[in-house]
Structure formats: C-alpha cells, structure tokens
Amino acid sequence: MPCDREEGFVDLERDGHRWIYLVPMRVRFAETDANRHVSQASYVLYFEDARTRFLEAMARRLGDESGNTFSWWGQGSSTVIVNQFVEYVRPAFYGQWLLVLVRPERVGRSSLDLAYLIVPCDRDQEVLTRGTTRVVRIDAASGHSLPWPPAFAPAVAALMGREP
Length: 164
Hints:
This protein is α+β, with helices and mostly antiparallel strands. The chain contains 2 helices and 6 strands.
C-alpha cells in the first residue's frame, strides 16, 4: 500500500524531537540484501536523498522576489559530508514505505548538522534508524569552506525555533 504522506516541511514530534522535513520513500530491491532487509549502506543513501531534498527546499524558500532560487551547486560551491553516524534500531524490508524525517541541530558559518529519523509510513511512532551528518559548504575550486548565504543561518535557526 503506498504511503499517503507527501514530501515537504512539517512540524512533527517523534522520538523526543521536533522534525521539520519529511521525505517518503519505498525500499527498492537493489537496497536490500539476501535476507530482504535493507542493507546498512542504503540508510546512508536515504539520508543523502532527504538531505538533498531538504537543502533544495530551503533554496526555494530563500528565493528572491522574482522567483530566483539559490543554487547550491551552480555558483561554484558544493557541500561535503565531514562526519556521519547511523544507529540501526530495527530492520526495514523490501517494498516497505518509509518516512525519512530531517531536522537541523546546529548551523554554523559554513557547516550544518542534520539529524534523521527513519520510521515506517504505516507505524510512524516505531523507530527503525537514527542518524546525523555534518555538512560543510565549500568552494568547489579551492576546497575551502564557504559561508552560507546571509539568509540561510537565520532561516534554519527559525526552523529550529532559535535565534541565529
């Protein structure tokens, strides 16, 4: 049965935290192992997909009045992961619909700490996986850290319910 949740900004309390972005996804056969459960490496890809979608949604939110949006990769910048943590709680299985929840934990000059929670779509109080990543924005040519656009940190802080 397909998941009836749509991707986008949300305000959900799960696992003792407030989550602000949701991405539904279905487990594909290629993401599983011989036991039909999700391979541990696939969770990192789920985090990557949710993180990219969250950053793209933030870019759309930060667009100017003419509808132009900030391009994360089109202005000589990129993002890199400097650390990542995954906690496997319960297995997910082939064909299962999952919700990947995202929340920012900290925003710095050029870094962003994100947390993730993966739950089944039909039992969204049941935790399958938790994780975190630290993303750093870099200049693509030099590899040096690059500050977020001026509006980014205040916008993320507002989503976190904090002052920048």
